Amino acid sequence: TSAIAEDTEDHVTEATKDVTIVDTVTYEQLEVGREYTVKGVLMDKATGKAVLVDGKEVTSETTFTAEEQNGNVDVIFTFDASALEGTTTVVFETLYTEGKEVAVHADLRDAGQTVYLPKIRTHAQDGINEIDHTEALEKATIIDTVTYTNLLPGKEYTVTGTLMDKETGEAVLIDGKPITASTTFTAETAEGSVDIVFEFDASAIAGTTVVAFESMEYKGIEVAVHADIEDENQTVYIPDVHTTATATDTEDHVTGANEEVTITDEVALTGLKVDNEYTIKGVLMDQTTGKELLVDEKQIVSEETFVADKADMTITLTYKLDASKLAGITTVVFETLYTEGKEVGRHHEIDDEGQTVYIPEIGTTALGQDTEDHIEKAKEDAVIVDTVEYKGLEVGREYTMTGTLVDKETGEVITDAECNEITTSEIFVAEEKDGSIDITFKFDSSALAGKSLVAFESLTTEDKEVAVHADLTDEGQTVRIPEIHTTATDKVTGDHDGVVAKETTVLDEVFYKNLIPGKEYTVSGKLMVKETGEPLLIDGKEVTAEKTFVAEEADGSIILEFTFDSSALAGKKIVAFEDI
Fold first, then answer.
1. According to the 3-state scheme, what is the secondary structure of 317-335?
2. From CA 214, how far away is CA 144, in angstroms rounded?
């Protein structure tokens, strides 16, 4: 006998529900004209027993009348072979006439009587890590080792694989195309294995669990398939890692440069393998440098080991640090997922706002509006402009900058005549991370002569303070309000009583307080008539004096000399007015 599968026309076929094996029985020395019956049964080569389908033997028979002594006749077996995957069947045939056995062919070793029903099983894993997880990289490799049994040796086969989405049961698509791979080989023996290599962009399918479906073809006809969406051996996990970092004090992506700062990172993980152990490790990065953020030469890290109780989970990592020296820094949390000591997922996006926490820094330069320097006149309508420079703000976020004037000597807040604190604020939206904003104080400083005012600034967002600059010793924040008073005496008498003379000299000692040392000043004086409050005129001209000097210290004095003809001023009182 020579048994072949109808579909492949060879000794191999797929174990499907509808299989047809045609066994051509060649006979010799039959009696012409006699009726014969050939009865066949399928045998399991491995056990030597009849193949059973639903508990019944697979049989077939053909009755014919011999027209010649020698010839052949076909015995056709049609049956459900779906449960016979991996079986090698051998067709046994017996020839009868008048119910009596007259010939038999039953040889388990006869290749001609044999039909193979191949079986394939697959084991998919990452091409580098050699585990059932792969990272969502642009260039990922999954190797699916296809183990086969019951092939017809010496024949060429092609195995084609497709990656399927475990959740949907559909083929995984990238740019609208399925992920496939194939290889063609010649089976040297009935049993063996072959690798199918899938190379693809896994970054597009992060969070997906893929299952490798494999199909084996012979002569372009499928002879084996393994497509079990629940088979763990065929399954590869591609976890997705996504993080949201916030400061615990503000519950937002911003915090102050404080000694005790806690950043909480909610790490959302998808595509995990249930009951598998993972470790998530994180580190704080400096967004500007792209390197690890260091505090006292140490990295700020956190990690958590857990067993996945479901495919999608959220793990919380906590970072505690002294941020007092990190003002102006923007930190980004990088997270990496491991299993079996191998990296299988990461979220390292230096520009990802969700991973980012801002630690703002502010510095101020306060100037008198009139002088454009750190000095302002004691007057009713004084204006101080404090230019606040900021660093490390979140672009697009609304902030409030609030300024308060403080007495440098006492540290107390300056108040106006109604005892209201002198404060002002500006609301703004940060258009860039680094920039500046002017805070303008308008107030009555006429009672503040001799004081130094320091502008304290506080930056808030959503009513949470995230930066402050309040340094009483900072000259950049300081505006001085000078105070002067004078003592005028006659040069001759050395007293406030002058001598009427053709040439009289009045010495006015100007005592100053709270100047900026090192700066150049000019003192201008004018003699006034006390009774009238008008300038003293001699020969129609005002009596003035002026001197320019550099203040060596904040407090000191300088003498102006007024020389004039006082012969017509007997009985007058003269007052010296001074400006600095």
1. EEEEECCCCCCCCEEEEEE
2. 9
Report the alpha-carbon distance of residue 28 to residue 25 in Å, rounded.
Answer: 10
* Residue 305 CB partners (closer than 8 Å, separation 6+): 277, 278, 279
Summarised one tens digit per residue, pLDDT across range 482-533 is 999 999 999 989 898 888 899 999 999 999 999 999 999 999 999 999 999 9
Q: Tell me what pLDDT residue 404 has.
A: 97
Question: What CA–CA distance (Å, rounded) separates 264 from 124?
Answer: 36
Pairing of strands 452-461, 240-247: unpaired
What does the pLDDT look like over 14-52, one tens digit per residue?
Answer: 999 999 999 999 999 999 999 999 999 999 999 999 999
pLDDT (tens digit, 9 = 90+) per residue, 314-325? 999 999 999 999
Q: Burial of 426 by CB count in 10 Å (0-12 exposed, 13-18 middle, 19+ buried)?
A: middle
SS (H, E, C) 439-471: EEEEECCCCCCCCEEEEEEEEEECCEEEEEECC
Terminal CA-CA length for the chain: 128
Quick one: pLDDT band at residue 416, thresholds 50, 70, 90? confident
pTM score above 0.85: no
Tokens of residue 215, six digits? 């199909």
Nearest to 528 by CA among 537, 539, 519, 517: 537
Average pLDDT, integer, range 176-203: 96
Q: Are 567 and 500 in contact (CB under 8 A)?
A: yes
CA distances from 294 to 299, 322, 332, 354, 571 (A): 5, 10, 13, 21, 80
C-alpha distances out from residue 307 to 6, 271, 301, 403, 472, Å: 52, 13, 21, 51, 54
* Long-range contacts of the stretch 505-508 (C-beta < 8 A, 24+): 505/561, 505/562, 505/563, 506/561, 506/562, 506/564, 506/574, 506/576, 507/559, 507/560, 507/561, 508/545, 508/559, 508/560, 508/561, 508/562, 508/576, 508/578
Mean per-residue pLDDT, 89-110? 96
* Cα within 13 Å of Cα(447), Cβ side: 8
CA distances from 62 to 59, 74, 95, 96, 254 (A): 11, 7, 10, 10, 87
Structure token digits, residue 511: 């005592």
Predicted pLDDT of residue 106: 95
The residues pairing with 77 across neighbouring beta strands, listed in sequence order, are: 21
